Amino acid sequence: MEEMQIWQLLATQIIGFSIFLAGNAFLIWVAFRVSKSVNETGGNIIFKLVGTVFGLGIVWNGLIVQGFVGNVVQSASYSLGQLKESGGEVSALAESFMSANGTDLPEFSIVPDVIGIIWWLSVLAIILLPMWGPKASD
């Protein structure tokens, strides 16, 4: 495999994941609306449980997609490193990409970096706190 093929494969995979991320962003918005609706109506325990499961599922899906994106990026970096090790030529851009992402064999993980953890926890809090907290006053 040549460097250009690795870049093309990465680009193609990222396009697919972008569609999943856009869908997940829409579902996050839906979960925010569900949470607000449950809070405003003072929803019963069934609605709160269903809304909670929905919100947890959306965050879980987002973590899975984010994990796949990270794995794909690291796989591209690994492939570029293997190309270089086998004597193939790699560009300065590829060198920079490899130094930023490492060239070790990637392992899938749904645990994001610190910023990702903070972001997903805030999404979960925005979904769950209004649902289980006190009803908004009129």
Task: Describe what you observe in this structure.
- The chain starts with a helix and ends in a 6-residue tail after the last helix.
- Helix 1 (3-41) runs parallel beside helix 4 (114-132).
- The longest helix has 41 residues, at 45-85.
- The protein has 138 residues and is mainly α.
- Helix content is 79%, strand content 0%.
- It is elongated.
Give a topology summary.
Blueprint: H1 3-41, H2 45-85, H3 92-101, H4 114-132
Strand count, sense and barrel status of the largest sheet are:
none
Structural class: mainly alpha
Number of helices: 4
What gross morphology would you assign?
Answer: elongated
Question: What is the terminal-to-terminal distance?
Answer: 63 Å
Assembly state (oligomeric): single chain
Rg, Cα atoms, Å: 20 Å
Integer count of domains? 1
Instruction: Give the overall average pLDDT.
Output: 94
Order of helices and strands: HHHH
Count of individual beta strands? 0
Query: Helix fraction?
Result: over 70%
Give a concise summary.
The protein is mostly helical and 138 residues long. The protein has helices at residues 3-41, 45-85, 92-101, 114-132.
Features:
138 residues, elongated, mainly alpha
